[in-house]
């Protein structure tokens, strides 16, 4: 299972600490259109990290950022100064279609931004497996990777939950930067008339000299785009026709 690793870059910007000064003025404004393009590339990565870790700390109320194309994105900051994001949408789909889409690692990059590859490392059961996800690098951000375990569960109300956490190995040595800490949770809640609410919530405390305005303004936009892609991808017949014996449909 791809485990929906829209969870990218839990780490610092590549290079020296003064790199941010090369692309931002002190007041946070961009210097040139070229730098704007560079920052947009960085924001793609930041959108991925926004979806990485469920925070249990007390936090501020959620603030609505945008509702468009049947997708709602909210944000807040918790008392550990982590930026939290919550995205959700409602659509007509089976629960099995969503799981089948996650299992289709070959096409993960069709809807998850900046994914380079997803490799199944260990399949313990239909509800639990381990994958390695690699994320593309950009001009300012090193390529990153994470090994994650996903656990799928379903309660008596047919609510489907996919919990994800990484397995950090400080002894690992390979290309790119290993993500140190990552957690995430998908929740699929059946509604009336065949609709399903899909929610993904997470938080991140990124290292490095990453401007907060960049994380919030550009990162949220890419989170929104990822959910829009999800809404299109899940409609494909190869997912909608999937039947999985370990999933109970409402």
Structural description of this entry:
The protein has 250 residues and is of the alpha+beta class. Helix content is 23%, strand content 32%. The protein has 5 helices and 10 strands, in the order ααβββαβββββββαα. It is globular, with a radius of gyration of 18 Å. The chain starts with 18 loop residues before the first helix and ends in a 10-residue tail after the last helix.
Short description:
This protein has five helices and ten strands; from the N terminus they run ααβββαβββββββαα. With 250 residues, the protein is α+β, with helices and mostly antiparallel strands.
Per DSSP, the total helix count is 5
- Which whole number gives the mean pLDDT? 77
| Largest sheet descriptor | 10 strands, mixed
CA-CA gap between termini:
22 Å
Percent in strands: 25-35%
Structural class: alpha+beta
- Total strands: 10
Shape: globular
Rounded Rg: 18 Å
Question: Share of helix among residues?
Answer: 10-25%
Order of helices and strands: HHEEEHEEEEEEEHH
Outline the low-pLDDT stretches.
9-32, 38-57
Fill in the keyword field for this structure.
250 residues, alpha+beta, single chain, 10 strands, ten-stranded mixed sheet
């Amino acid at each position: 299972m791809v485990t929906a690793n829209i969870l990218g870059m839990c780490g610092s910007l590549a290079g020296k600490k003064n790199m941010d000064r090369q692309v931002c003025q002190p007041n946070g404004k961009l210097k040139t259109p070229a730098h704007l393009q560079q920052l947009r590339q960085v924001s793609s990565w930041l959108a991925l990290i926004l979806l990485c870790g469920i925070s249990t700390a007390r936090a501020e109320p959620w603030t609505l950022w945008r509702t468009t194309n049947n997708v709602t994105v909210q944000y807040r900051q918790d008392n550990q100064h982590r930026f939290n994001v919550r995205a959700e949408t409602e659509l007509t789909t089976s629960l099995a279609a969503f799981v089948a889409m996650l299992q289709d690692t070959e096409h993960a990059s069709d809807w998850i931004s900046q994914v380079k590859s997803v490799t199944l490392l260990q399949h313990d059961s239909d509800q639990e497996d381990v994958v390695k996800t690699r994320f593309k690098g950009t001009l300012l951000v090193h390529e990153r990777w994470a090994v994650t375990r996903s656990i799928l569960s379903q309660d008596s109300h047919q609510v489907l939950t996919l919990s994800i956490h990484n397995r950090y190995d400080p002894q690992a040595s390979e290309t790119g930067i290993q993500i140190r800490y990552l957690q995430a949770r998908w929740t699929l809640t059946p509604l009336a008339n065949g609709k399903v609410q899909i929610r993904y919530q997470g938080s991140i405390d990124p290292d490095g000299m990453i401007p907060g305005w960049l994380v919030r303004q550009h990162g949220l936009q890419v989170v929104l785009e990822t959910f829009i892609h999800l809404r299109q991808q899940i409609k494909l017949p190869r997912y909608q026709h999937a039947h999985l014996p370990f999933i109970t449909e409402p």
